[in-house]
# Entry
Amino acid sequence: MPEFASATVHLRTPEDAVALPVRTSVELGVWAAAAARRLTGPDGAEPKLLDALAAELREAAADSRERGPITALSYVPEPRLGELARIELSALVADDTYPAMTVELLQRYLAAPTPVSYRPPEAELRSLPVGPAVRVRHAYVQDVGRDGLGTVLETCAYGIRADEKWALVLLTSWQAEAATDVLCELTDELAETVRVAV
# Structure
């Protein structure tokens, strides 16, 4: 396995997803407007929809850029409803604290309960073409208001041991609880497509 380099890692982009420009320097407003037009199709959409979708894509790209993933996708199967889910593929590289990547380490990292966990994480070991992995479902409460109520953010993640010196984390996150099964299936399918060029 080669040393980690973002250029060696590949993930299939699903239909209805747009790649967010997290590793290229583009003006996000211009990029988002063009991406919104592509997503709404050749027949176009009303200006309010285009503006709202462009604003959401611009915010999604800026948000993902802060985390610096290898790749980030905005999943938008129905443009009039906006982004349904965010998909990010990131790398974890061994260091002095954790000199070797293991599936057990990835499970501890991804399945650790937090003060904002909505329910306990569910972890299960998997085997993928790119290497051994752990799949973790988790839900968090975010943006808690004065009334104590917040928004539930659900995630389905794969920690993939690509090599003893580095690993990959595929993370899909969403807020639409009704889409949980579909988005977990999508994440499972995408995990099977992760490749590392040698």
Summary: The first strand starts at residue 9 and ends at 10. Helices lie at 28-40, 47-67, 103-110, 180-193. The two ends are 6 Å apart (CA to CA). The chain is about 30% helix and 35% strand.
